[in-house]
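Hello,

Our lab assistant flagged a job as stuck in the queue for most of the afternoon. It eventually completed. Since we weren't sure the result was trustworthy after the delay, we are filing this so someone can double-check. Below is the sequence as submitted and the structure that was eventually returned. Let us know if re-running is recommended.
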Amino acid sequence: MKDQFKLFLSLLIVFVTFLNQDVLAWGHTGHRAVAEVADNHLTKKAKKQLQAILGDSAYLPMVSTWMDDIKSDNKYSFMYTWHFINIDEGQTFETLERNPKGDIIKTIEEMKSVLKDPSSSKRQKAQAVKILTHLVGDLHQPFHVGHASDWGGNKVKVTWFGNPSNIHRVWDSEMLGSKGLSYSEIAKYVDHATPEEVKVIQSATTVDMMQESYALCTNLYDVGDGKLGYRYLYDNYKTVEERIEYAGIRLAGILNDILG
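-- returned structure --
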């Protein structure tokens, strides 16, 4: 009986870990920072259209975490695989066997189609905005395009200032959290692209965005002795800021193209 309990406990830990992988890119603070940057770059027409679609919740930072907020509701469990796409070493996006349940690339394109479709209901469009706002942020977290073999970096164990962690979690929230800033403070600090730079940043396709993240995470798998702290933060925080800035600017570009 004791051995059976130990086996059950081990399986439960693995199961919970699996459920929690790849779900909280950037954490709530990072997602809201992405959405705040996007809000800064929306056209007046796009903002008006969002008001009509979202009603009282027509503020992107407040809907940006919806896909994480509902993860405990079983009726939304089918959305789990939408948060990421995993590409192992030796694979390419073109040769990858895509998940039949969907992935982040497919879902972003589908949500864009929902918003463009005049026959889509207001409810469908509202959900599409929430999903797009979240997933464009997810796509810019490098380990949401990490290796399938290590669950997008979740199995790459490290310590963060002496505390047990993994490389996915470090990039999700721990580097951002270490600064102690609000989402609006982060957005204000990172959002400094010129109009010319904005145009270039927004020219990226969804696959381009994925390829950027994949190129980054491929190098980020080298964690040395795994003891991460001040030096790692110093070396990588600028990349975190850039990914948040790019995600927000590109989200605005997508919404402006469709609604503005």
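-- support follow-up --
The delay was a queue issue, not a problem with the job. The result is valid. Strands lie at 157-160, 163-166, 227-228. The mean pLDDT is 91.
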